[in-house]
Specification:
There is one protein chain. With 138 residues, the chain is an alpha/beta fold. The protein is built from five helices and five strands, in the order βαβαβαβααβ. The chain has a five-stranded parallel beta sheet with strand order 3-2-1-4-5, with helices on both faces. α3 runs parallel beside α5. The longest helix has 20 residues. The protein is globular. 27% of the residues are buried.
Length: 138
């Protein structure tokens, strides 16, 4: 039974469906969620200058704020994380270890076979690199 699930979100419909699915899973087990988003800025910390990185951090905060608002009514224990920069899939896999998660639920963008041949999706990289069960929600 999954007791602590990592749910990476990016504000897309796929990620909101993944969060809803993870909520259903932990409500059965009495577990908790780690909800994270990864900003794609170039700096490891948000900067005050208007060079674009602040915007990424702000968008990440808004996504997490929306997730928090959604979770308030569900009475589920949640931790919220904003990771800055780096490879998204690697950040997800590292967070699983750091937060001692025993599962990952993430949304799939639904990349087609041809597009998938030229570019690995985050969900594919996480699926291949994870040491815990991974559920991909479409």
């Amino acid at each position: 039974m999954l007791r602590r699930i990592l749910v990476p979100i990016d504000g897309t419909d796929y990620s909101w469906r993944a969060l809803e699915y993870a909520c259903a899973l932990v409500s059965l087990s009495g577990g908790s969620l780690v909800v994270m988003t990864v900003s794609s800025g170039h700096h490891t910390q948000p900067v005050v200058a208007a060079d674009g990185d602040c915007l990424y951090a702000q968008i990440g905060d808004e996504v997490l704020d929306s997730a928090h608002a959604m979770m308030l009514a569900k009475n589920i224990d949640c931790t919220y994380l904003l990771e800055n920069g780096g490879n998204i899939a690697e950040n997800i896999l590292q967070t699983v270890q750091e937060e001692k998660c025993d599962g990952i639920v993430l949304g799939s963008r639904g990349m087609g076979v041809l597009e998938g041949l030229f570019r690995s999706s985050v969900s594919q990289v996480v699926l291949e690199g994870a040491t815990v069960p991974v559920t991909i929600v479409k």
